[in-house]
Amino acid sequence: MGRTHAPVDLSSEYAADYHAHQRTLQLGAMTVWPSTLQPLLSRRTAKLVRFSDPGTYNLTLVLEGTARARWDDREAEYRPYDLHGQNSWRPCTVQVGRNDQIVRCVGVEIPRDLVALPRGSADRAISRPLSAREGVGALLAGFLTRLSADTSGYRATDGPRLGAVLSDLVSALFAHALDSDRELSPEARRRTLVLSVRSFIGRNLHDPDLTPSLVAAAHTISTSHLYRLFQDENVTVGALIRRERLERARRDLADPAQHGVPVHEIAAAGASLTIRPSPGPSAPPTAPPPATTGRQGGTRRRASLTRSCERSTSANRV
User: What would the mean pLDDT of 3-14 be, rounded to a whole number?
Assistant: First the structure.
C-alpha cells in the first residue's frame, strides 16, 4: 500500500498469516472497494502526503465491526453504518477492528472536483460525524451495498452513469451535514430527490395505499412536482410502483423457499397491483389451480401472477 497513489503504512498483529479480501469497482473517475479484513493499523503520515496527494475525498461505510480514527486535533469511533470521512491531504491514523474481529466495509474515493460543493464546505463536512442510518446517508449506504453485492446486471459502460449517481449522493450527504442543501446545483438536488423517491417506493411496496400522492406527501412536494421530477426518467411514478411490485412478486415466486406459499398470499403481499378485478355478478367463481412444484410449477405460478397483474384495475394508472 506504500506504492499506491495515496500511500499508507499498514501493520497488523496478524501479519504472519493475514487474511483480507478486497474488490475494486471503477465508476468513471470514482472508485468503490468492498473489503473484508482482519484488524490492522493504517497510517497516512505527513511524509506520505507530501510524497503523493491525489486530491480525493474518501468515505468508508462500516458494515460489520468497529474502527477508530485519529487526527492531530480529534478522534472518532465508528460502528456499523457509521461513515468514516477523510481527505487525502490530511494525515490520519485508523485502527480497523480489534482483537480478532473481522471488519466488513465499503470504501469510496471521489476526486474533490466531482463534489458539487465549494471545497471549503466539503472540507468542513467530511470532518463532521456522518451516519448512514437515515436520510441521505441511508440512500448512500443502500446504493453501495447493492452495488457491492451484485454487479452482474451492469456493463462496463454503466460505470460513468453510476459514478454520477454516487457523486450526487456524496455531495448531498456533505450538504446535509452542513445544513446547506442550497449549495447543491439544481440538477444534483433533482437527481438526489429522484433517488429518495425510488428508495421510498421500494421500502413501501407492501402498502396498499402507496400512490403518487402519498409519495409526494412523504417528500413534502406537490404531486405535480413529483410528476415533473420523473419526466426524464422514462417511467411515471404509478408505473414504477406497479413494475417494482411485479418484480418483487416474481422474485418471491422464483424463490425455492417460498414454493409452499400460495400465489394469492404472494399477490396480497404485493398490495393493490396484484389484486384481481372483481368478476361481474353472473361470473362463475374461479377454482384455484392445483398445487405444483418444481420448475414447471414456478413457471405456472409466475404466469398466474403476471396475468393477475396485467388485469389489474387501471383506476390508479398515472
Answer: 83
How far apart (Å, rounded) are the C-alpha atoms in residues 170 and 108? 9
Q: Identify whether the C-beta of residue 35 lies closer than 8 Å to the C-beta of residue 22.
A: yes
- Cα atoms in the Cβ-side hemisphere of radius 13 Å centred on 100: 1
| Torsion region of 271: left, alpha or beta (phi above 0 gives left; psi -120 to 50 gives alpha) | left
Identify the pLDDT of residue 188: 81
Whether the per-residue pLDDT at 273 is higher than 90: the answer is no
- DSSP SS3 for 77: strand
Indicate the length of the chain as a whole number.
318
Amino acid at 4: T
Per the prediction, the chain carries an average pLDDT of 82
What is the pLDDT, as a whole number, of residue 271?
54
β 130-131/75-78 pair status: unpaired
Q: How far apart are CA 204 and CA 105, in angstroms?
A: 27
> Which pTM was predicted?
0.69
**Whole-number pLDDT of residue 137:** 93
What distance in Å separates the CA atoms of residue 190 and residue 89, rounded to the nearest whole number?
31
